[in-house]
Amino acid sequence: MIDIASKFLDINNFQRAWEKVAENRGCAGVDGETIDSFARNQTVNLYQLLNAVTHTTYQPLPCKQVIIPKKNGTKRELKIPTVRDRIVQQALLNVMYLLMEEKFSPASFAYRPNLSYINAVEKVADWRDLGYVWVLDADIANFFDNLDHHRLLKEVRLHIDNPGILCLIKSWISVGVQTQEGLILPQKGIPQGAVISPILANIYLHEFDELVSGTDLKIVRYADDFLVLASSQERILSAKLEIIDLLNSMGLTINTEKTQITSFQRGFRFLGHGFLENAIFPVDANQVKLKSGIEEKQAKKTAKNSSKKKVRKNLFHLRGEVLM
Question: 49, 229, 272, 295: which has the highest count of C-beta atoms within 10 A?
């Protein structure tokens, strides 16, 4: 059993956390302190930060709102903690990884050491080869903004029953965001942009992964994007209703515009890759309309021919199939 508190409150752990935060750079938070300004007196700053956390005098500051334009014309909101808050979060994350990695489901691939979206794509191919050819291609609507705080802390407590650490996590998810209009305190959700948020997201969906994996269905999840796979059309139709009900019980809803029932024969896109029959190939979301399925025979033929050309150009193998 990992003594998470002692490993967390260790100066060597805080030093590693600082090095990770410094490596990632990033902008200053609401206090204006930059990576470079913290670095000028890092030894004293780290000891002071550790002492404040140890003696419960540490108080996180609100996140800084940063709006990022997206290619499709929409905007994405990031909520950036201060440099000091990022260091404390990274220090806790260092030890939470040790605890949670052995517990997380093999169906979950995002935000985990030594795993990537390529591993998720490979797993989809594995299930296809085993006959799971019907697919619920799903997306959770506004996932990070809709996590219920009470449920999240309850799920964390199942793995980390330490009042001090739970209070820290509660303060980080409820501290609010500073906008041009003023301070906004959230009733739900976790800040997308905070160091600690990805592992909290995986903890929140851990039960979901386990419950779906315990049925005759297969699931491959990458953050809030996931595929549920079944061996028949009838089963995948009933599975959609089950998944919707399960997510609703967790305070989450399906994004209907980004969710579909499809098959490998019809084609779909997942994690930047097109899946069409036995072919897997990278796709540009702005050029290849695979997300809503292959609706015309000509589109299907074009995509298939394109994948064959790419296969000849740049090969590497995936369980006997070609992955580009």
Answer: 229
- Cα dihedral 113/116/121/123 (nearest 10): -10
Strands (E), 34-109: 63-69, 75-80
- The rounded distance, in Å, linking the Cα atoms of 264 and 144 is 29
Residue 124, Cα to own-chain centre: how many angstroms?
18
Residue at token pair 């050309």:
309
Task: Specify the pTM.
Answer: 0.85
Cα within 13 Å of Cα(288), Cβ side: 22
The sheet that has 63-69: what strands, in order across it?
75-80, 63-69, 177-179, 182-184
Which residue from 172, 196, 264, 234 is spatially nearest to 17, judged by alpha carbons? 196
pLDDT at position 228 over 60? yes
> What are the tokens at 146?
């809709």
Given the DSSP bridges, would you call strands 218-222 and 225-230 parallel, antiparallel or unpaired? Answer: antiparallel
List CB contacts of 287: < 8 A, sequence separation 6 or more: none
Question: Going by C-beta distance under 8 Å and a sequence separation of 6 or more, which residues neighbour residue 210?
Answer: 105
pLDDT tens per residue, range 237-261: 999 999 999 999 999 999 999 999 9
| Whole-number percent of the chain with pLDDT over 70 | 87
Tens digit of pLDDT for each residue in 36-70? Answer: 999 999 999 999 999 999 999 999 999 999 988 87
Q: Which amino acid makes up residue 250?
A: M
